[in-house]
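Annotators were shown the component list below and the corresponding predicted structure, then asked to write short factual statements about the assembly.
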Amino acid sequence: MKEALTARLKRLQSLGTGERASASPPNEQTVDPGPQDAVSELPNLGFVEIAENVWCRRTRHRLAGQTRARIAGYESTGVILPDARGPYVFLDTETTGLGSGAGTVAFLTGCGTLEPDDTLLIRQFLLSDYPGEPAYLAVLAGILTPDCCMVSYNGKSFDSNVLQTRFLMNGIPWTRPRQLDLLYSVRRLFRTRLSRCNLATVERDLLFVQRQGDIPGAEVPDRYFAFLETGAAEVLRPVVYHHEQDIVSLVKLLVFLEDDAASPPSHSRADPVALARLIMPGAPTKAMSMLSDLVRHDSPFGDSRRAMVLLAGLLKRAGDVAQAVPLWESLFRNGGSAAAGIELAKYYEHRLGDPVSAIEVCREIQKRTNEGQFRDALLHRMDRLSRRISESEIDR
Amino acid sequence: MSDLGTVLEELARDPSFSDCVTQWEHLSSVQGKYREVPDDLAPRLRTLLASRGIDRLYSHQAESYEAVRAGRHTIVVTPTASGKTWCYNLPVMQTILEQPETRALYLFPTKALSQDQQSELNESVTGGNLSVKIVTYDGDTPTSIRSAARTKGQIIISNPDMLHSGILPNHPRWISFLKNLRFVVIDEVHTYRGVFGSHMTNVVRRLKRIASFYGAKPVFICSSATIGNPRELAEDILGEPLHLIDQSGAPRGEKHVILYNPPHVDRVQGIRRGVVLEARRLALEFLRRRVKTIVFSRSRTRTELIASYINASLRNIYTDNEGLRVESYRGGYLPSERREIERGLRDGSIHGVVSTNALELGIDIGGLDVSISAGLPGAISSAWQQAGRAGRRNSLSASILIASSSPLDQYMVQNPEYFFGRNPEDGFVDPDNLFILGDHLKCAVFELPFDTEHPFPEGSLDVLHSIQQTGVVRYTGDRFHWADRGYPAENISLRTATNDNVVIIDTTKGAHSVIGEIDRASAKEELFDNAVYIHRGEQYMVTTLDIANRRCEVEQSQVNYYTDAIVKRDIQVLHEDDAVETDSCRIVLGDVLVRSQISKFKKIRYGTHENIGYGEISLPEEEMHTRSCMIVFKESSAAGRSLHALPPEAQPLVLGRLGSVLRTLAPVYLLCDRSDIGTAERLRDPHFNVPAIYVYDRYPGGVGLAEVFRDKLPVILQAGLSLVSSCACAEGCPSCVGPRNAKEEIDTNPKEAVLALLAQWGGASAVAQSEEVG
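Structure shown to annotators:
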């Protein structure tokens, strides 16, 4: 009863009707583009074929003095690197889609390594057609070895996942190396200082890198598909340069982040409260003094209030409640912070044994805030306090 | 005697009830057939069964256990409340206890069912102290626990949509699950038919392909309600031979099934007392005697209406509503609300429930005594599902099916032999519809480069070569690769006929809330500018229909009319590929191009149905290429002669009525919705040059409805004959061929003419294809 699929297809193609069907041109002949001479344009972009459908482009970048040694030094003195250990591979990929599903391919993978002569060697591997993927991945597996540390921007949740999927689907074993994702550090230290935390904003506002003739990331997949279709490599030129620049920026960003954290507070551009929190475990004295300074002299960014909150919390945990009280007072009286008010009420009730002052603070909070999260706890506290007050009145 | 027995006796004696009964079927009780618990069953599972009061299995449960353990794909077709979940849970859990790395995927057609199943399974697990990890993975699963669910869940409960758009496209994340996938359970497999089933078939093909990539070859276990061809349907979906278990070993109590046709209010116009009021009256009879009752209704609005009527009648503050609690139940309620009602029904704190077909499927609500269907559900199999909701293992139960005035209901209620004859509809799929297949091939390529090793039909590579021309796939190195930035599954819905929907937005008083969705073609016919649109009892007027952006803005309105688009349909025959000549007519199967143009609409006053004006519509023409069954009445044929004998002015009217009878009855035999097929009747057909009726599939490319219609035509004709001839009206009414319209100004009685035509045609084809009528 059912007719063969191919016959159905033929008829549909020859008719080409309906809004949906019109998406496919009514062409009965399937044209296999076959081998493409135009791939030979790839050398014009600096690529060399290293295996069938796998191309490599090597570039060297001179770095500001002693970068390799400085980066090694951060392992003992820095704030971001202490958990890491080299050799570092600065990694970035360009992919055929933005999701990380099974159909997304990393067609361009760049690996930046710091060479003994203090240059940055960038190797960009291009997959010029799908059948080359196993060879392409084998080359990458030789660089992304288990003992290295991949430095990336958003690589933890994207690039390395895509690579992992590709290795898996091609049946090539790969142990994911350790990862240092600079996006996390940037988010932590600069969230309050940047409009967005993407690499382009970071380059512009922190590294002062001006890109010439850059293309929007969203165009990248379509350029690759156009290259696959026509074999004309010229469309990839901006993609390749963009990608190369991304890796250079990764190195610059790492150096910037470490140097900025190490510079005197007046020169640092990071959020000082976030920085204090970050260095607290290793350098508590320095962190406390940074916070105290901020409490005394507010910054143009208004960090003082957040510094107070953090400092008061630290003091309380350290058992130094008396020092925290003035901070809570200020946060509550001037800033209307309900959380600080509750800390004060606790202090009056439990430390000073003064339920009357405590309940006054509670009433004050009630007047100022209507935040749901506090309401129930507050009512509960006031209930208990008024019982205590009436009990003590009876005792008297 | 139980209260139910008393009520039934009273009803039987009461002429106002018994005169309306067209069939009162008494089914006696059936003894259970039991088997010992299998020898190899783990002690922990035995303990679990014992804690549920089960010391032996029903025969079908034991048979299923053996078949599945032997690695056979299996389908279990047994009635409601026959313990079918044990049919798959026992072998699956036993295997997990033996080999803890075993993984199983349970697919339920709806989220509500999967949640119900999860809670039931969790009870078993905690009850029996089993160490089996069961998780639900659907759209509601929080991202934070998804990763743990993927790696730790031994049984994963999900639905086809999640498998299609969440699991398969991300299969590398599921590697540990898929590598060990030993069982796939597909519950309620009969719901996967038509368009949904055709999608499901392709999702299963994709699952099998990915599983085999990871070296897994799972055993499929299906359960189904009684339809005509459960095994064939499931075999089509799975592409595997199945072991069929359809002898239930569960006992059944005595049962009464009553077909009830409400009395005429106006015999001439064929108007009967409404189902809403009849359902209320009957439900109250039972509820007041403390008989647990479920009422099924066809729409959400009616569900609410019947429940509120019942509650209003029971309302009495002095007796606390006589101590009775009646709830309504439908989609759109919060899961917690639904769980509470289900629990109330199980523990007896709720005595009655009014529900849409949401409770038709296997949600556990315990045993009820009476089911009342307020209007027959579209398919016989659904009617039996509803009736199956009443009845416990050892006690008396009753099901009353109340017919509405619709021709379909009238046909069923007046032909009890059709209803009671063991003859439910067939379900079928057409997974190779080019649009559906093409969409899933794209998904498959995305999931894994596509080569010659695949479970898709022959010719799939040609389809992919054709898709390559749109640029989303690339053929290289003997394989197809995904070559697009998009994520194909995201834009493909398994549920709707097309993935091209218009969103309906209520903008009343500056609001902006989405109230519904409708496919593009229907939007043009129903949501043109200034159209009146009714949604859940609320009346709206369309302010703008923006087809390009697939949105339609509506505002609440209070006008006293509704609108009806005048659709001009033009059908062009593209290809005739198959023709059958009978004595009565010629039946052709082929490809057609249906062009619909809507240029005007009528405004029709509520109540009087007067036409009070016209409006203009300017919308682009809609084109659809689909499959059609064409019935051609040559003058020399029996039916053709009968048609030509009529006065010329009566011919188009009679032909039109014949078409509408076919369209009314076809869904019963095609197990599809009325809106899935279209008909066109033409007296002088430009292609065939003689009168013709087109019955076409309203899904682009066709999903096989035209083919099945052709095969079922003799039975449909017989049904048409019996519907029209047994209708009590004189000159046609809404319950048969439609009322006679004074404006038509013809002398011929349309009912008689249609009847004569049907008899000529049907009689002749019955001779020609007598074996099929059998």
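Statements collected:
1. The radius of gyration of chain A is 30 Å.
2. Chain A is about 50% helix and 10% strand.
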